[in-house]
Structures are given as C-alpha cells and as structure tokens.
C-alpha cells in the first residue's frame, strides 16, 4: 500500500484519503451503487470512432467506471498520456487505442481495489487491440505527489482526469504536479464537478457528500485562480452541464449550493511565448473533426475558413500538438479598419453556470467532451 504523500501528512488529509479508498474500493461495487446524479449524460451523441474504441473495453472494467465526463482530447496519435485517478482503467484503455502502439498511457490511482481490476485486463486488451506489447501501465500513488510515484518532470504530452480532482484534499498540489510533469505545450484536459460558491467545512466532512463528488467540488472561480497561480494559462471552458443531485436527503444537506459538471483545457505554454492575436485556418485533418473542430465553448474552427483568435489561443495552437493542424497568419490583425471577412469567436461567459444558461448544453458540448457518454451514471 502506498504511503500518503509527505506534504499532506496531517490527520484530516489522511482521513480523506482513507475515506475515498473505502468508498471507491469497498462501498461502491458498480455505478448503480452511487447515491446521487452527480454525473449526467452527454448532450451530444458520442462520435462513431469513440463508440468503436469503447466497445473494445472489458465489461468488468466498464462496470467499475465512475467518471463524470467523456474525456477524449484530440490529436492523440503517438502521444504520452497520464490519467490522474485512473480507477479501473476505463479511460486508459479507451485512450490506449487512440494513441496507438507508438503512444503510451499511464494511469495513477491510490485505490488498490480499483488498480487490481485495471491491471487484471492488460493482456486482454493487448490481444483485443492487436498490439505486440502493452502501451498502458498503472501506478499506485497520489495525484498530489506524482514525483513520489516516480513520474518524471516534462514527460507527458497530455494529462486527463475524470471526476477525480474534487476528491483530492489538496487541489493546489494536484495542479502543481500536473504542471510539473507536462511537457512545454502540454495540456491538462479534465472533467470535474464545480460549485457556485465555496463549500463550508461541515459539508466537506460528510463522507457520502465527499464520496459522491459534491462537497469536495471547487468553486469554479477558485479553479481559474489556482490554475494561473501554478503557471497554466487561463483555463479554457469546453463544456458545461448542470447537475441535479436526485437524492432528497443529500439535497437537504446541501441547501442552496448548486453544482455543474464542466470540462476545461489547461495549457502549459513555454516561458516567454509570444501572445499576439492573428488569423488561423484549420486544415480538417483531426480524426472525428474533419469538417469542424470545437476547441472550446468560444472557438469552433471550420475547415478552410480563416478565424480570428486572441493572443492566448494563438499561442496555445502554435506551441501545442495542434500546431500542424492550422495555418497561421502570425503578423497579427489590423484592428483599426472595418474588420474582415474572417470568422469571429463566440461571445460566451467564463462562468460555467451562466454558459449553460446562455447557450444550452446541446450547443456548448463538443462531440469529444461532455459527460458520461453511454454510461448511466459515473463518478470516479
């Protein structure tokens, strides 16, 4: 059994770790054991290429899937991916097909019972996918202490997390460690539960509310602040879906607090990278996005159509794995004139609760984002 991270050795933090291990290792046997609707179905159909890879995952792995989103970032071929809080390995085995034999997926989790399921089916999936050797491995450890688990600085192209950060007693350390192990230009693409205000300590102490991914939820404004303090550029909101708890006893305890399931993209840009607005043109070569690429709630790039992007997005696209997918007019825009015939980004709220109200979940949930896919309920 892995020891709790040294930076988080106080009794309260250790108690949270033990409670979460108990809840997800012993209390929950399958998704139907969850006591709330903290996870909601995707507002859009799951793309065919994603449905195909999901169908290849062993039923025992699927049965212990507790995620709150369908976390499928684009351009995965050949990438090194890390899954924070991998649980039974559902996301890892899905993504292992998308990165291909030359890519690799590492899953890390602190719960022995979940990892036992994940590791049990490594050989099964190698044969199922037609690979010569595994491109997946699973590490026991804490997402707040990736260094202690042996994960090396600047070693991953992409980090995903599916309804796990809310379960951590130290969100700042999670983000800091994610930033450390990402390569320059790398991305943390994750789905989680957020609240409309800071949750008080008495609710945080409720084991069921915490285990159901509710009382440990970050206030969405705190996510923005913490991410930028760690070094990420401002989080890009991808999806937003309002959560209904669906349990009268838990609703009474929670009172007026509201929750949303949201997917964000956080990028680690190289130090000193230029941030200048420009025009970009999408080439249409991303799998599953041949006609248009929904980068986030604000930016949808249509193939062979020039679009104006702000300086931060221009830097993200130019310094990340997406650089080969776009043509850049890097000299910037002349904004003194009457504008141009290029496409403009949507004017959307950065507040996920307002975004849901403003656009409706169906119009803001990209085909590779959103929650749960074909699962009835989930929360890892």
TrEMBL record:
GO terms for molecular function: arsenite methyltransferase activity. GO terms for biological process: arsonoacetate metabolic process; toxin metabolic process. It catalyses: arsenic triglutathione + [thioredoxin]-dithiol + S-adenosyl-L-methionine + 2 H2O = methylarsonous acid + [thioredoxin]-disulfide + 3 glutathione + S-adenosyl-L-homocysteine + H(+); arsenic triglutathione + 3 [thioredoxin]-dithiol + 3 S-adenosyl-L-methionine = trimethylarsine + 3 [thioredoxin]-disulfide + 3 glutathione + 3 S-adenosyl-L-homocysteine + 3 H(+); arsenic triglutathione + 2 [thioredoxin]-dithiol + 2 S-adenosyl-L-methionine + H2O = dimethylarsinous acid + 2 [thioredoxin]-disulfide + 3 glutathione + 2 S-adenosyl-L-homocysteine + 2 H(+). Residues 77-231 form the Methyltransferase domain. GO terms for cellular component: cytosol. InterPro entries: Arsenite_MeTrfase-like, Methyltranfer_dom, SAM-dependent_MTases_sf. This is Arsenite methyltransferase.
């Amino acid at each position: 059994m892995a020891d709790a991270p040294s930076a988080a050795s106080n009794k309260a933090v250790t108690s949270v770790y033990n409670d979460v291990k108990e809840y997800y290792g012993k209390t929950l046997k399958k998704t139907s054991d969850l006591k709330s609707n903290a996870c909601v179905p995707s507002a859009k159909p799951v793309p065919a290429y994603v449905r195909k890879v999901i169908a290849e995952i062993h039923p025992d792995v699927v049965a212990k899937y507790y995620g709150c989103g369908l976390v499928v970032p684009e351009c995965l071929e050949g990438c090194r991916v890390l899954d924070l809080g991998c649980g039974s390995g559902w996301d890892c085995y899905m993504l292992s097909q998308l990165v291909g034999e030359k890519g690799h997926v590492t899953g890390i989790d602190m719960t022995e019972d979940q990892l036992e399921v994940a590791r049990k089916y490594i050989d099964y999936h190698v044969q199922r996918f037609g690979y010569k050797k595994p491109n997946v491995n699973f590490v026991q450890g804490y997402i707040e202490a990736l260094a202690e688990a042996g994960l090396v600085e600047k070693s991953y192209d992409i980090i995903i997390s599916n309804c796990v950060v809310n379960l951590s007693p130290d969100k700042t350390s999670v983000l800091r460690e994610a930033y450390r192990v990402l390569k320059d230009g790398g991305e943390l693409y994750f789905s989680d539960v957020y609240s409309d205000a800071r949750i008080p300590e008495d609710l945080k102490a409720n084991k069921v509310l915490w285990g159901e991914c509710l009382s440990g939820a970050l206030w969405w404004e705190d996510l923005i602040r913490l991410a930028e303090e760690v070094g990420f550029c401002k989080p890009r909101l991808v999806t937003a879906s309002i959560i209904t708890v669906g349990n009268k006893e838990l609703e009474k305890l929670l009172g007026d607090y509201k929750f949303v399931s949201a997917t964000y993209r956080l990028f680690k840009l190289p130090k000193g990278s230029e941030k200048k607005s420009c025009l970009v043109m999408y080439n249409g070569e991303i799998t599953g996005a041949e006609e248009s690429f929904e980068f986030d709630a604000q930016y949808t790039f249509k193939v062979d159509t020039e679009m104006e992007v702000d300086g931060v997005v221009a830097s993200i696209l130019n310094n990340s794995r997406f650089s080969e997918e776009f043509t850049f007019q890097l000299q910037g825009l002349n904004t003194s004139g009457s504008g141009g015939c290029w496409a403009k980004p949507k004017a959307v709220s950065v507040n996920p609760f307002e975004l849901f109200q403003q656009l409706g979940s169906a119009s803001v949930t990209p085909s590779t984002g959103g929650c749960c896919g074909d699962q009835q309920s989930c929360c890892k």
